[in-house]
Amino acid sequence: MLSQIAPDEDLVFFRPHEFIARESEQPAGLYHMLEGWACRYRTLSDGRRQITALYLPGDYCEPHWALGRMPSQPIVALTNVRAKRVPCQVPSGALADHQPSFWKSLVDGCERQANWLVTLGRRTALERLSHLLLELFERMRQSGLAYGQQCALPLTQMDIADLTGLTPVHVNRTLQTMRTKGLVELQSKWLRIPDVAALRQAAAISQADAVI
What does pTM read for this prediction? Predict the structure, then answer.
């Protein structure tokens, strides 16, 4: 199903599970996420899914398309999404206003991918979930969408499993352990972190390390 575009504002809207981009198809533009969450993923031959990137408000989906790259993996909306579509090229001239956020999004995305390699390769289940929740909270905070120690978390346990390389059962058990330890509170698609320092310690992140 095609997204709906508001021609006078160059805004694009996607519903949950709607494709924002399909693999190896020319994208209609870059999408500056204003509201909602989306993900990039790869599906294995047996149907297993690995989520390889999350796009939150403030992110560009995906900056490297401006360098002439085609989507190598599909991208789908996880929630209702509102985004501003911009030309699929490196911002310059009339697009100069986009340059700072564009390049920051590109650099942050590369940094997150490096962190995720460490997470999937070396961290325990509790460390993986702690790192993921810290990253999401920090990204929401930077976008002005965290309220005190809490933020929205519209991910299902299956989504979290596909992000962390764990089974849904393992995710459920680990989240229960984290709740019991007082590391996180999860209710009605909201995340609250009572003690950020304690969650950083659980994620095996030093105070000098970046989360995103």
Answer: 0.81
